[in-house]
User: Fold this.
Amino acid sequence: MVEPKYISDAELLSQWDYMKKVSAISADFQSIQGRPPSAYTKTFGCQQNENDTERINGMLEEMGYVFTDRPENADFILFNTCAVRDHAEQKVYGTVGSLASVKRARPDTVIALCGCMVQQPSAAEEIRRKYRHVNLLFGPHALYRFPENLYRVLIEKTRIFDNAPSDGNLTEGLPVKREDKTRAWVSIMSGCNNFCTYCIVPHVRGRERSRLPEQILKEVASLIKQGYKEITLLGQNVNSYCNDLDIGYDFSDLLKEIDAMEGDFTIRFMTSHPKDASEKLIDTIANSRHISRHIHLPFQSGSNRILKLMNRKYTREDYLNLISMAKERIKGVVFTSDVIVGFPTETEEDFQDTMSLIREVEFDGLFTFIYSPRTGTPAATMEGQITDEIKHDRYNRLSALQAELSTLSNQKLVGQVVSVLVTGQNDKDPSLCDGRTDTNKLVHFPGNYPQGTQVSVRIDRALHWGMYGTLADK
Assistant:
């Protein structure tokens, strides 16, 4: 067995000591101000970032902070950033820039940035030079050192930038604050070994590092006991889970052990890489009690030429064979996926290969991205960069096709009764509940039910993004 890289017990205890020290500072703050210090956190990017923010919020709560939804009122402000697309980075820069006025009005407010974007040396240097009101910056590898770094900022009144290159270590035993009491994220691994030519993730999150199965099973069992209804296992490529440990155990084995647990819950997972999706995984889902029949399986391009340039390590034919096998063996399975348009040198013929794959699979939904060059990736310096005009034209045509297919998929359920997990009240119309089916389809229906309630809904109307229904017993 290859031992996983965990931070030491001594280091973890050190960070808990720093939490106590910051908690003492918070108590002094409250005695003077008549209120505890408040924190505002915001997440950009993927579910892994959401999960990281939950741990940061857990540490903040342990350190005596309460939470506010207004940054201008906060004593601590944190943005957890994303580096996958340029648009996400520019949004962060704009948002952080606007906080300069908050800092002028409340000079003692601590402003922090973390996440994938700030792990990039160029981004960190720009923040250091242009955004002097940022006090603390730390990358994903330094998340566990957050209490120590915050303590130093508060005591030393200095700026701290903790984003040295690293593959990072796994951390167990940090507090977690989950806002959602129905659906939970569980990270099973960190990093990525695939080095797709367009992707910055391996450069900012490091190589694959799998948590020990017993740690994951313990966390999942606790969540089931607490009443969580959906548990989503997270990793950049969950299908390669445990490859780095060499213990004769894989992702399918983990799913089987969780599926064997008693309780009323659904297992989801993301993201899967097609090159590592196996017949064993498909059979595991097909024979399960708790695993969702919704599979998110990014294909990125339907062109073998582009897939090779992307370093995806599978072909169009490989992908379609997986889809065909899953449809044969998993009753009611639906697929969603990621796709990139406008990758360097993509021709109209390549794009039509993508369109034809979408028609053949009939995805329930797609996350469609316009290719965005990421500094430090091979694709960013490839010849044959596509113009924005062509990218947007292809994006619009692809989106129109997927809207048509999603509508047709949802219309198949009109008149049927489906089980729906309530996720909350609708933001725009409080008379409606929002919920999700087992296959992750969005459903709106009249009523006022607590989050986590399971109800039967008759589908009355279908649109491309979701469906409307009424309670079946009415």
User: Anything to note?
Assistant: DSSP finds 15 helices and 19 strands in the chain.
